[in-house]
Structure formats: structure tokens, C-alpha cells
UniProtKB/TrEMBL annotation:
InterPro entries hit by this protein: CAT-like_dom_sf (IPR023213), Plant_acyltransferase (IPR050898)
Keywords: Acyltransferase, Transferase
GO molecular function: acyltransferase activity, transferring groups other than amino-acyl groups
Membership in a protein family: Belongs to the plant acyltransferase family.
One Pfam assignment: Transferase
Name under which the protein is recorded: Uncharacterized protein
Record organism: Miscanthus lutarioriparius
Length: 194
């Protein structure tokens, strides 16, 4: 197996002017060890048997897991010799633009005339981080505490929120809002290997 080698030459940072005007105007290039992590990085490992493995690292600002799977599927299609990938990229950037004026009618829980209570700052050294595993037994214990139907996600979110409220000593009877985002696309691990 032949390994590729390379050398990284360190030099002083220099200011590089863009070929055409950009919003930032210029970008400073810095030392190799202090670079911002790459937006996309892929490594290919070839095995003696002829197989290979691909490792991918991507900045989450560029794509979520579903987007990376879709991208890798396109690369796979092209590597197999197809003229076009099965799923073409979408360049409709206007779909990501906010309505002007904003339409908040779809978020009635967050749209309220009542002011939210002030956020109580908490010192970082007083915060506790921990991992919790919720198996069928733990979910059943949470479910036994509620009277209305709830998803596993709702049960866990409510339990964590109640623990937080108690930990920071929130006053009783004050409505507190909790929000989260979610992925609406379908994701199937097997789709990568179709």
C-alpha cells in the first residue's frame, strides 16, 4: 500500500485581497495550526483486499446529517458512472429567506402579549452537565406520572424542564416557554447503500 506524504510549510500570516469585492473585503490567512476547522473534510482509506472506507467531517453550518447522507449518495452515484446523481441539488436559496413582514401566526405559543419573565443568569461553575439514558423502564416511569397522551420526546422534555425549573428555583405559577427545532425530512440509513 502506498501512502501519500506531504509537508506543511509554516509562514507568517498574510492579508490576501479578493479578486472582486466581498462583504468582508479581505481574509487573513493564519498559521496551519490555528486555522478554523475545514467546512468539509474527507479521508479515504484503501485496504489490501481492494476495499476502502471513507471518513467525512463537515461543519454543521453547511449541512445536517440528512444533507450529508444526500451529498454522499450523489457522490456515490457519480462514482458508479452515472451521468447525473439520482437526487439533484436544490439551489433555491430564496426558500431560506424570511418572510417580509414576518408571519408569526404559526407560532401562537411564542406570540404573546404577556412579557416573558426575565432570564435568571446562572454562573457556569454552578451548572452540572450529565448524560441520561432513557430506556423503556424510565419512559414507563415518566408516563405513569401523566394523565394525557404524550410522546417519548414530550415526556423527556417535560422531565428535564421540570428539573431545570426546580434547580434554578423558578417561582410557581409563572408560564415558562420551551422551544426546540426539529428535522422534517425523512432519514433512512439504508438509503445510502441503495
Amino acid at each position: 500500500m502506498v501512502m501519500t506524504t506531504f509537508k506543511a510549510h509554516r509562514s507568517n500570516p498574510e492579508l490576501v485581497m479578493p479578486a472582486s469585492p466581498t462583504p468582508q473585503g479581505s481574509k487573513t490567512l493564519s498559521d496551519v495550526d490555528s486555522q478554523i476547522p475545514l467546512w468539509f473534510y474527507a479521508t479515504v482509506t484503501r485496504f489490501k483486499c481492494g476495499g476502502f472506507a471513507i471518513g467525512v467531517s463537515i461543519c454543521h453550518n453547511m449541512a445536517d446529517a440528512y444533507g450529508v447522507i444526500q451529498f454522499l449518495k450523489c457522490v456515490t452515484d457519480l462514482a458508479r458512472g452515472q451521468e447525473h446523481p439520482a437526487v439533484l441539488p436544490v439551489w433555491d436559496r430564496e426558500l431560506l429567506m424570511v418572510r417580509n413582514p414576518p408571519d408569526l401566526t404559526s407560532l401562537p405559543f411564542f406570540v404573546s402579549d404577556e412579557p416573558s419573565p426575565p432570564v435568571q443568569p446562572m454562573a457556569m461553575d454552578k451548572m452540572v452537565g450529565d448524560y441520561f439514558l432513557f430506556g423503556p423502564r424510565e419512559i414507563a416511569a415518566l408516563r405513569s406520572q401523566v394523565t394525557e397522551p404524550a410522546t417519548d420526546f414530550e415526556l423527556i422534555t417535560a422531565a428535564m424542564w421540570m428539573c431545570r425549573a426546580e434547580a434554578i428555583a423558578l417561582a410557581l405559577g409563572i408560564p415558562i416557554r420551551s422551544g426546540y427545532s426539529r428535522q422534517e425530512g425523512s432519514y433512512d440509513r439504508r438509503s445510502l447503500f441503495d
